[in-house]
Design a protein that fits this description.
The protein has 696 residues and is α/β, with parallel strands linked by helices. 34% of the residues lie in helices and 19% in strands. It is built from 22 helices and 25 strands. About 8% of the residues have low confidence.
Length: 696
Amino acid sequence: MSDLSRLTGVGPKRERLLAEAGIRTLRDLVYHLPRRYMDRTRFTPIRDLRAGVDAIFPAKVSSISMVQTRMLVEVEDGTGGIELVFFNGAKYLSRRFYEGQRLLVAGVPTYFRDLQLAHPEFEAIGEGFVFKGEILPRYPLTQAMAEAHMEHRFLQRIALEALDIFSFTDSVDAAHREALGLLPEAALLRSLHRLPALEDLPALRRQLKVRELLPLSMRLETMRRGRQTVGRAWEPSKSLAEKLRAGLPFALTPGQNQAVREIADRQATPGQFCGLLQGDVGAGKTVVAMLTAANVLEAGGQAALMAPTEILAYQHYQTLSPWLAAAGVRCGLLTGDMPKSGRDALLAGLQSGGIGFVAGTHALYSPDVAFQKLGYVVVDEQHRFGVQQRQALAEKSEHPDILYMSATPIPRTLAHTVYGDLEIFALHDKPAGRLPVKTRLVPPAKRNDMLAFLLKEALSGNQVFWVVPQIGKGDPLISAGVRLGEEDGGGTMDDKPNPERPRKGKNDRDPDIFEPARNPVEDLATLDRVRAELSGFSRQWKVGVVHGRLKAEGKEDALDAFRKGETQVLLATTVIEVGVDVPQANLMVIEAPDRFGLAQLHQLRGRTGRGSQQAWCFLALPERPLPPDTLERLSAFTETLDGFRIAEMDLRARGAGDLDGKDQSGYGDLRFTDLIDDFDLVREMRRYAQGALPKP
């Protein structure tokens, strides 16, 4: 039995329903805050009612009628009339109304042939009625809570009761509260559950955001300062860097040269360097990592590059090891499925210092991996690892320099929060001669046209990446989202249960009721289905297959055949999202694009456009109709190649991740702060933390 059972009206059933909604403690309850408020402080005459705008008004019942299962109650107030519609509960409601009765009615009008109110709130009022007015909080509800009469007034009442019995230890001390102008925690929450005035809401919500940004900002500033007192300086490389540059078959872009210079300057100063190198797909981050590793390698240290997949780790090893070996640096590759003999030899080389540079997967931070002198850690596609995973490799040595790399551009708000303790470097230019990728939505009616175009291109020497969200029917989705639905009804203005009270009907809508919607997968394009479709369309193209269930050798065989042009189509899951570089592949098809985040779509699209030919990316829409907001999101994606804009769009839709590092979806410990809209406040709290902490 939890403390919730101490609250009036909360028995075992209601306690269970609260727990199912994530409310298990009194603290959970007092932080289950209204998502919006209804202004019930002034009357709106019936003639001034507007569809979609909440209103409250007194009226007199002029007629009552039944149409099939609907009960219609006509009311008027001298300025006009409106119909109240109830879809069920006629027997119960027939005893609640009579002609000439005076009512106080509240709700949101809708338009169906004419203006009407479906399942409004109402109460009978007498001649001596005095209207006091109120601001009504609207809480997030589950359907089960609504059906158990645990609605907005009920939640407000038990939240206020909980504030009376809950013993608060304010998470923000008095000195910070005074400096930031914050109310005590209990007083702030009480005001949000019983809002004094609508004009008070912006300031109260700002206080919530300040309260959650403060500890994060203080923690990040403490981490940043801590790095200034540890680590060592690495002098800029001369001979090794010159050898590596001389061995490159291309000239660095201006952005690469600038990043190498700035990172090297920072590595040469006392203290641990910890930076983030961001640049769009194909911007050349890996070469920057190698050239800055030269500063450590020339001084006798070791460097490790960790990638999220075996494909990407192998790609890095294949790319960098010839250049490093030619300059006299011994390299290694460590993945999870290496034979024991090869693994043992590699581990011995790392421990003795004989291997200077190693690329690998998460296997690099296995307990049996030891380095002689690890001085530089590079984490590629860092957003694919949690903070704790990223730190595990860094802990293989005493305060090594760390460079995180990301082809998913970091919105400036995240740069001030999740990555606020890092120094940020960006590559904005790409190698010369590349054309922008053209992106198109392909509805089902145009699918055969797309297939004909792709076949013609494939037979003329072009190649196609074809990405699906599911391997076979019944298999788990590679990438799927959960969408929240909305359902509702109305009721009387009190929260007392009544066994005859009408249940909520399917036709009633309330944006405050949430529950997971159906997640249709039966019509998704699977790898098996698309392979059969391609074979049926033409026997002329050769199709290769790669997915996560294949062993490393099978994946590499499929990729090698594609690189060599032995197959024209590579049918794949998102294992090709990073680390696959096939310049002659300039066509990309992504099935069910609504199943992927925009940043992930951008990464996939980045597999193309690496040569001098025009590249195309086709987003193949499913047969099932997509919600308008999803189509709008995908359409916006087709119109831009700006990774920073896409990152901000994706951040708004998907969230920033657990800021302490394990969860990578949702806003984590930021419940109230919008990392895009609240950028100025995020920056303000960073400045406050810098001034509030004692001077080092």
